[in-house]
Amino acid sequence: MTYQEARIDFERLSRLGMIEAVWGEHKTSDQIVAILRSFKAEGQAALVTRVDRNKADIVLEAIDFSGVQFHSEARCLTLGSPYEKNSTFGEVIVLSGGTSDLPVAAEAGLALRWHGIKTELILDVGVAYLQRLLSQLERLKAAKVLIACAGMEGSLPTVLAGLVAQPVIGVPISVGYGVSAGGRAALEGMLSSCSPGLVVVNIDNGYGAAMAALRILQLE
Amino acid sequence: MTYQEARIDFERLSRLGMIEAVWGEHKTSDQIVAILRSFKAEGQAALVTRVDRNKADIVLEAIDFSGVQFHSEARCLTLGSPYEKNSTFGEVIVLSGGTSDLPVAAEAGLALRWHGIKTELILDVGVAYLQRLLSQLERLKAAKVLIACAGMEGSLPTVLAGLVAQPVIGVPISVGYGVSAGGRAALEGMLSSCSPGLVVVNIDNGYGAAMAALRILQLE
Amino acid sequence: MTYQEARIDFERLSRLGMIEAVWGEHKTSDQIVAILRSFKAEGQAALVTRVDRNKADIVLEAIDFSGVQFHSEARCLTLGSPYEKNSTFGEVIVLSGGTSDLPVAAEAGLALRWHGIKTELILDVGVAYLQRLLSQLERLKAAKVLIACAGMEGSLPTVLAGLVAQPVIGVPISVGYGVSAGGRAALEGMLSSCSPGLVVVNIDNGYGAAMAALRILQLE
Amino acid sequence: MTYQEARIDFERLSRLGMIEAVWGEHKTSDQIVAILRSFKAEGQAALVTRVDRNKADIVLEAIDFSGVQFHSEARCLTLGSPYEKNSTFGEVIVLSGGTSDLPVAAEAGLALRWHGIKTELILDVGVAYLQRLLSQLERLKAAKVLIACAGMEGSLPTVLAGLVAQPVIGVPISVGYGVSAGGRAALEGMLSSCSPGLVVVNIDNGYGAAMAALRILQLE
Amino acid sequence: MTYQEARIDFERLSRLGMIEAVWGEHKTSDQIVAILRSFKAEGQAALVTRVDRNKADIVLEAIDFSGVQFHSEARCLTLGSPYEKNSTFGEVIVLSGGTSDLPVAAEAGLALRWHGIKTELILDVGVAYLQRLLSQLERLKAAKVLIACAGMEGSLPTVLAGLVAQPVIGVPISVGYGVSAGGRAALEGMLSSCSPGLVVVNIDNGYGAAMAALRILQLE
Amino acid sequence: MTYQEARIDFERLSRLGMIEAVWGEHKTSDQIVAILRSFKAEGQAALVTRVDRNKADIVLEAIDFSGVQFHSEARCLTLGSPYEKNSTFGEVIVLSGGTSDLPVAAEAGLALRWHGIKTELILDVGVAYLQRLLSQLERLKAAKVLIACAGMEGSLPTVLAGLVAQPVIGVPISVGYGVSAGGRAALEGMLSSCSPGLVVVNIDNGYGAAMAALRILQLE
Amino acid sequence: MTYQEARIDFERLSRLGMIEAVWGEHKTSDQIVAILRSFKAEGQAALVTRVDRNKADIVLEAIDFSGVQFHSEARCLTLGSPYEKNSTFGEVIVLSGGTSDLPVAAEAGLALRWHGIKTELILDVGVAYLQRLLSQLERLKAAKVLIACAGMEGSLPTVLAGLVAQPVIGVPISVGYGVSAGGRAALEGMLSSCSPGLVVVNIDNGYGAAMAALRILQLE
Amino acid sequence: MTYQEARIDFERLSRLGMIEAVWGEHKTSDQIVAILRSFKAEGQAALVTRVDRNKADIVLEAIDFSGVQFHSEARCLTLGSPYEKNSTFGEVIVLSGGTSDLPVAAEAGLALRWHGIKTELILDVGVAYLQRLLSQLERLKAAKVLIACAGMEGSLPTVLAGLVAQPVIGVPISVGYGVSAGGRAALEGMLSSCSPGLVVVNIDNGYGAAMAALRILQLE
Predict the structure, then answer these.
(1) Complex prediction ipTM
(2) F4 beta partners
(3) Under an 8 A CB cutoff, do A212 and C201 touch?
(4) Which chain E residues are Cβ-neighbours of B25 within 8 angstroms?
């Protein structure tokens, strides 16, 4: 039984304007090394998401070529260099309800910066103390797209989308316990939102939110 | 097979300080008439919740004694008169996120007023437009207990409990569609709330929220 | 117990650039008439979604002022006239997997056209016969934003977002039976999508998808 | 990508009368140390909940200032001293159905005592042997608020709220297996309770139940 | 496409000691008539469960042979006569938490009496007012098997099985609203019960509980 | 907003060997008439599934061309004539656990016969009385493919697939109540089956099971 | 905060005829040792269920009194000796569908033998190969009560209860993967069973099934 | 309490044409060794699925007879040799959406080759980049049966079954996170598929898909 592993989508860049990203969580370190080697051979950049430190260390140890780095906060490996900042694209702000949302917010931020997008993270603006969010309102209005990460009951994107007119992308976070464990309550809260025009991605999908923002920013 | 229907808890008043309430939704009109007759015979007041207009009309038609009224907005039948307003108990404010929450908010209000509690309803203060809630803040701080009804993503009680120090009782409402249909998303959002000390009752349980407020107000 | 009904958000237009929309499904015809009268008095346009023909007929009968119309395919009432077509905003295409998705697709289309956005509907391009979608590809690339409605397994937005670089907004539809009844399978399929940057709104939320597109188009 | 971590709500005390509490479960020990240092700098007390012994040991090792303690039974870290007992506030009794509920009951007790509230724990009064609860009834009536923790089928708060007139706060516990694993059955049992006026918090949320009790006790 | 309808299990009586029962809910009146005719031809008794009054009237109208009756409280049709009371079998008591549980309790009672079992119904002994149950305790100890029906949080069988040593069969009831709608909360509460040796049948399955009792009583 | 309705897959026949089928449940009678007219114009046969008698009557009334019939047991409309019996294809037997499964079993049978496949229905061979199934075993071994429909706990396909070597396709049926309502329990039972090589289709999807059998029969 | 741990139900024996059993899974080894010491002091026997080998070793190490044993197959600790075999009670047979069900079947068997009940285990009689079960039928008819353990789709109790007239208690087992992981599919299959009079206990609750059998056997 | 372990179905081969397979996940290494020894004694081949490397190493260490191998990619143990390739049976192609699906695809492939079926694996043809699948179309049409493995939203089998006329067996894979974790979204997507005649097996059930293919191939 022979087979060819990892039929990589080398044309994603020309088709979608996106660097190829590989979901690292259920892949072995051997599979990740082989995939990175293919990209290196093609001269392409790459992003590997959801890699824990242990697996990253094994990959970095096994890699025999240059250009691979681990970003521990965002739990991602990258191959190659980020694109030049493209100032015509406008800025994205990534907000989070609490400090525990950091890994997902950082994944979104890294994916955007790797595509040359100016990005800022504003943590800990959850709605249990509204003043934290309201005090940032003018700053937020300067961004082109807002990505709002929130676990627990996930109200932050709802409140935000009622206050600003730009695109708001909600990212439910799998922190919480009891009914909020796993991020379902946050996800359903965002989907049920009474604020018009809020859109949502899968739980913890910081990369997906970043690519959604990129699709918007790439509209000339 | 003989049996004795409706073993009524005539001692609830002395034990819990609450008028006996009967859940009308799954009872036939015959059962409701028989129960009201028993209360009348005991000289007690009673509240029958979740009665639609059709069933109420049949009950009112069949009743051959005085003192029964239907409250259409709250979908409740009452027997007897409300208690005297008891000003030492303090006031309860019932808020709702949207107009569709009215029947449940009205059920809570009716149950409280029937126990002599001063009550006000403030509708349509949902968080999609925060200013509506913030403009009421001083008014809200005058109440002893706040009951906050909300469907969809159910953020109102969370935002409220972050702003005021009093007891806040969240009532999820079964309005909505898709993931918010049935009120589960609102319920789980309230239970997951990042605001400390928010308590919750069953979906659409306006009566239960009222009795929880009464337990608090009765503390001397 | 006195209260003031329907605390309407008359400032939504200036804050978010959106005509106020009212969710009609759980409101009585009396409540809808009262709300429309308030908007009329303010000289504002309005959109009432999820109104079935029966309720619409009662509302239209009860209305004693001009400017209200029922759009039966989209199940919406409107007050006032649509905005002038704004050609700088670019076009939105609304796709659907099957004929049964029409009401939701039509709701999205109506909401966009009411805000002056050029919109086209392309029905029946489900992935069970790929050629139907592939033959439209060049046409689709001309649009600024794509809204893809799909019930059953909901694959259309996933396949589409792998083919085009623009923003794609998935709308799960509550048609189907067995495991796809209610639209959950379609929703979860879209959220789980392996295509990067697909965003999703609540099941059947055509209006929400339209407002998300509007947020994008309003970015100058 | 720079950001400012942990935008702490230093005004919670003046706004809500509550010491700031930090949810420790999904935070790294580094994040917890940084947060505690901020509170220390502000001269405020703090509570960190859901910290296991391993993480606590690492935090205590890393802390270079005084006043931090680990409470192993309640799985909490505290900074600063508890408030003086405030005898005007009345007493809270925390009950539990079984010995396995101890960590959550202890978290509730610790949070209350840290706010100066007199608190007693009564374990193992589950309804499988009613006499255990009934024998405590007079003792229970002396408390101002009752917090009832129960896993499995979660009947304790229902039975209790049918026996006493005070506020009863149900806390579902995530012990159990099969259908009761995770605490959902207990939660839904409490929400469905046939006893009027029982209120509920999230599964295992001992801290939340304590803050709900505090909101009630702070009513003058 | 020819086929033979309703391959009836005429040997159930000799194999299991049970009269054949037919689940009437999803059958047409034509199907029910045909099935009853087959039993009549075989000289066997039969029970048809979950038949509403409308369908029963159509069946009774269409039947052209004697011995069929409708039992409206239990929503069952019977063919033939009940067995002689068999005093060696001992008695079954069917309890219910509330009046709304009557149809299911009556179905259980009818099925038992049709097999010659002495049966009593005791309604309205829900645990929100424990005294109602405790006052019946001596009476209950005289029965051989206890069937306890309860909706909402379904605590009655748990409390009962902690008080008596006989077999207790819990029947969850689909009354309730919000999280208790459909009877899932009651079912899961009974399965999670902390009382040892409580057994459970499907929601609303009064007939099944009766047959479980019969299996026990038939042990000589 | 103009659009072209019902982009029909006229090439399905040449591509997959299947007559085009239209899912009628969420379509209006107007939509169904228009679709049938398109097929008539193309000279193709068609099958419309899940049409209740009321909708069928309206369609038949509105149709102004020949060749449309309603099959009430199978709840289907057909256009055109069934294919000639193709004896090289072998026979399919459709089994069902109970009489209530008839509509789905009949839908499968109709779809097969319309493609020229010899088909027999054997109802009421549920596993509560094994002898009914075992007595048919030799008959079953003569078929090329077996389709087994079952509601409730859905054991029939599991037991069957342990007894015979041919392909067995399980069809869960949405009859039942309590935990088996809607067919989920039957579906999950079939998917969990301990019998090797049992395959499953969606709940009530008789048409899908028939097309799966057709794919098998069309080999070589 | 002082409290008294483990309010043990020493009267369970006289009230229910059952040795006190303690659920060991969520208790610390310290708690288990303390509880066993209390029983020892009272001169009572005890059973601790769901104890893994590691925890058992720590307990056995810490115990400073005689009479405690670990039963590794059943994952239980016992204190004291089993009761004398009571031949008037009749025999219980515990069946299982597969070898993986052994720990739960063994827990049921141990609990019964500790109460003096004659018990036999018959493993691996799952319905994927019916002959295994049918060949045991005469042996099974000799037992007074049958306990049938099954994971995956859980058909064994259904098939069994259609073949024999005695009480059958179904125990769903949490083995399986995909939709059968955790035992829900088996549980719902048993509750949905088309065999009359099958009763069910919680997933993996071997002890509960044993106590249900004991309640039946104790009927004189 | 004596019992006979592992009542093995040695007749499966003659009855179903399948080598006996044992589900290894919840069995101890001792149980697996004992089962393999029984097969060896009978001179039969065997397959043990879902065995991780650790358990496999312990089994291989303990085995004192020849013919047992571990297949690490497929996580299976085998006893004996594969059957001769049977060229009359035709070929099976196993496809997968992504590299992470490899273990399940390999399990299917191994099970087929062990029965003498020619099999090829084609990985990484997910629908996010359609061209990968479309470029293989001619190759796919040469196979007799297609097994399509996919996690996340699971669209691959739907798209495939719309393109080819052969039997397509969908295998949902438990890779993913958020709503796709555990494979439920993929499973429900496949069951809801708009492509006619797609059949499905349990999540990760590569072995089951292989046996379903075998049932088809064995039809002469």
Answers:
(1) 0.94
(2) none
(3) no
(4) 175, 177
Distances (CA, A) of A49 to A22, A34, D23, H96: 6, 15, 26, 20
With 0.90 as the threshold, say if the pTM is over it: yes
Q: Quick check: G183 and D178 CB within 8 A?
A: yes
Q: What is the pLDDT of residues F89-110, one digit of tens each?
A: 899 999 999 888 999 999 999 9
Is the distance from CB of G96 to CB of G123 less than 8 angstroms? yes
Kindly report the nearest CA distance between residue H5 and chain G, in angstroms: 6
Assess contact for D153 and E193: CB atoms under 8 A. Answer: yes
| Angstrom distance (rounded) from CA A148 to CA H218 | 55
Three-state helix/strand/coil letters over E21-83: EEECCCCCHHHHHHHHHHHHHHCCCEEEECCCHHHHHHHHHHCCCCCEEEECCCCEEEECCCC
The pair of structure tokens assigned to F177 is 């109540």
The CA-based diameter of chain B, rounded to the nearest angstrom, is 62
DSSP B163-185: T--S-EEEEE----SGGGGGGHH
- Domains of chain H with bracketed CATH: 3-79 (no CATH), 87-218 (3.40.50.1970)
Angle, vertex CA D158, rays to CA D154 and CA D159, nearest 5: 105
Burial of F90 (0-12, 13-18, 19+ CB in 10 A): middle
Angle at H208 between CA H204 and CA H212, to 5 degrees: 135
Q: Which of E125, E179, E203, E204 to mutate to test the interface with B (most CBs of B within 10 A)?
A: E179
H129–A contact, CB cutoff 8 A: yes
Nearest residue of chain C to residue F29 (CA atoms): C100
Distance CA G124, CA G135 (A): 12
Cβ neighbours of A9 in H, within 8 Å? 128-129, 132
Q: Which residues of B touch D90 (CB under 8 A)?
A: 219
* Interchain contact E192–D (C-beta under 8 A): yes
Structure tokens at E192: 């999670």
In whole angstroms, give the CA distance from residue A14 to residue H118: 38
CB of B190 less than 8 A from some CB of A:
yes
Query: CB–CB of C105/C98 below 8 Å?
Result: no
Q: What's at A216, amino acid-wise?
A: I
Q: Are B152 and A193 a contacting pair at CB < 8 A?
A: yes
Distance CA G171, CA G192 (A): 14
Instruction: Check: CB of residue H153 under 8 Å from CB of residue H189.
Output: yes
H3 with G120: Cβ contact below 8 A? yes
The pLDDT tens digits of the residues spanning E134-182 come to 999 999 999 999 999 999 999 999 999 999 999 999 999 999 999 999 9
Question: In the structure encoding, which two tokens stand for residue B127, read together?
Answer: 């968080």
Q: Which residue has the tokens 């020819």?
A: E2
**CA–CA dist F57, F37 (Å, integer):** 16
User: Any residues with CB less than 8 A from the CB of F210 and at least 6 apart, and which?
Assistant: F92, F107, F108, F109, F111, F112, F115, F147, H197
Question: Contact, E55 vs E32, CB < 8 A?
Answer: yes
Across the interface, whether the CB atoms of G1 and D110 are under 8 A apart is answered: yes
CA-to-CA separations, E94 to B2, E103, E128, E193, G195, in angstroms, rounded: 12, 12, 19, 19, 21
Chain A and chain D share a number of CB contacts under 8 A equal to 64
- Give the C-alpha separation, H74 to H207, whole Å: 10
CA neighbor of G156 nearest in space, from F192, A22, F70, B38: F192
Q: How many CB atoms lie within 10 A of CB B30?
A: 12
E42 at interface of F, judged by CB pairs closer than 8 A: no
Which pLDDT tens digits describe chain A residue by residue (220 residues)? 444 445 666 677 888 889 989 899 989 999 999 999 999 998 889 999 999 999 999 999 999 999 999 999 999 999 999 998 877 889 999 999 988 899 999 999 999 999 999 999 998 888 888 888 999 999 999 999 999 999 999 999 999 999 999 999 999 999 999 999 999 999 999 999 989 999 999 999 999 999 999 999 999 6
What whole-number distance in Å separates Cα of residue B141 and Cα of residue D184?
A: 34
